[in-house]
Amino acid sequence: MNGIDIAVVTDDPAILKSVHERYPDGSKHSIELEHGHNVHIFVRTATLVLSSYIRDNEAIAVLGYSNVHESSMRAILESSPGVAHMNSALGQLIGAQWVVAIRKGAVRIQGTVSGLSRVYWSKRGSRFVASNRSRELARLLGSELDPTQVAFRTIHPMQHPFTSSSCWKDLEGVLPGEYLEVTGRSSPRTERWWTPATSYRSLEDGANETAAALFSVVRNQLSDHSAASCDISGGLDSSSIAAIAANAAKSGETHTVLHGTTSVSRDEFNSDADWAIELSKSLKLDSHSFLSWNDMPKEYDDLDALASYDLDEPSIASISHSRFTHLINVARSKGSQVHLTGFGGDELFIGSPTFCVDLFKTQPLLSARLLLTYRAMYRWTFRSLVRPLTTPMSYQQWMRTKSLSTDRSTLRIPPLSWGFHGVIPPWITRDARHSMYDHVRSASSATFPLAPTPGRHFELENLYQCARLFRTMSDIVSQTSGVLLVAPMLEQAVVEAAISVRTPERLTPHKYKPVLTHATRGLLPAVVAERQTKGGEDTDAAIGFSENISAIRELWDESRLASLGIVDGDYLSNALRRPDSAEFDDCAIAKTLATELWLRSLEK
């Protein structure tokens, strides 16, 4: 079914009636918590599968990639004294994306540890409502847009905690790894249910655990589908997923026809196509579509279509919608019902230099050696290495003083603290800038990092950013083709296994993704497994931007961002007369365009 998966939990009968009228094909359940107090669960599935178990005044509902057996859900209820005791059991549900558990008068609602599936909620008087879609929640409640939160979507990168906020006033977002608990008529509260384990495994043990997790997740994602497809991009991440899927299909673990898709970059220095050919020969797929540059739409093509998508927030991923939807439509024409990708691989398997800051306290000599190597690779100045080590900041200090900037040169500062500086584009109005700075200052005192150390915090932040991008792609694909787009590397079991490897063995500038290459040894052709490079697509984006510049300019004649006071339309229109300007060297214009077109989509 084309569309998006929607889940709503509320104790307000009027909200239930409203959402059911909007989606009459959805399913609803009501569970009595106490005298006259009922909780209603509404789910409308598009690409996911709903499993539920309800008895008396207790229930579990799971929205996931495949069916969860009733006995598994019953066992969770029977073995848990209350919803606070379900952390481990719910975490073991492979493929679960959104879970509602009701036991002993309490309601627990959670998404995924990567942030791919989220929880948003609001309180209206004595009633509560929660959903996996902030946009759906805003519709139900008639919520007002928050211009400051919209403005944050134009900067790159957007920082924690704003990545977990919604674009509407009075709607709260739950952090990945936390769940929402509602007990009786009391106000909802959040509790942490997942914390990344300390990195303690050897490379060998961690790689074996990662391999087992990847195989388990891929089997789960293929299990209910007779035909699937996968990216054959030539990159190590997608190649690994494709090899695992092909292995599962050949061994009879799944009865799935597997189709491969490859799109070629225009960049003459991007050799992905050569690696894709080598991989395709080895995997013996049931079929393989190899699309040349001229067969594919370009970046920034068909921008007006973005206003037709139902998305929770603006995302730079939407700028490429014509390319990835075309690729998925080719796969769908071959019968594919689910498409596997390698998203999340960079975030999990390329160890960030930020971990050197963590290592400096316990292994200073190793940290120094690694930093000097990274310095040579990235041409960092010696001073830029020393300062973060000698004058460390708390997250609150960093957030107040470093997380936001108007200076584009800060993007070149080594990521040796809590993250990259978020750069405000030059076309953002002074009022909007001041509003963002005020918001950061007021939020900083009550904000805590995602992890105690900069390296782990930065890793989780990047993982959440990746999940946000992929969520947009998945939502667009489900609305245009009905195909389920999945990223096995963003699943909890894979994340836990990958980051459990000891930092010195994960973090090395001398080997490319050592955990992943160890996990997939024997599955990939040697020439692919030993690849030490990664293809870029900057040339493709530049060509698409240049060829669509007229359409991009026209968007600012009646800009919604300008009407909200966020963008100086005249400044941006003048700047776009010089499309080769250095102001467009980073992704700021793409994020601004995505935000403008997202605002227009709200008018439909």
From TrEMBL:
Residue ranges annotated for the Asparagine synthetase domain, each copy included: 213-600
The entry's keywords: Amino-acid biosynthesis, Asparagine biosynthesis
Protein origin, superkingdom: Bacteria
EC identifiers of the protein: 6.3.5.4
GO biological process, one term: asparagine biosynthetic process
One Pfam short name: Asn_synthase
Reaction it catalyzes: L-aspartate + L-glutamine + ATP + H2O = L-asparagine + L-glutamate + AMP + diphosphate + H(+)
InterPro entries: Asn_synthase, ASN_synthetase/amidase, Rossmann-like_a/b/a_fold
Enzyme class: ligase
Pathway note: Amino-acid biosynthesis; L-asparagine biosynthesis; L-asparagine from L-aspartate (L-Gln route): step 1/1
Entry annotated with the keyword Amino-acid biosynthesis: yes
GO molecular function, one term: asparagine synthase (glutamine-hydrolyzing) activity
Protein name: asparagine synthase (glutamine-hydrolyzing)
Biological classification of the source: Bacteria, Bacillati, Actinomycetota, Actinomycetes, Mycobacteriales
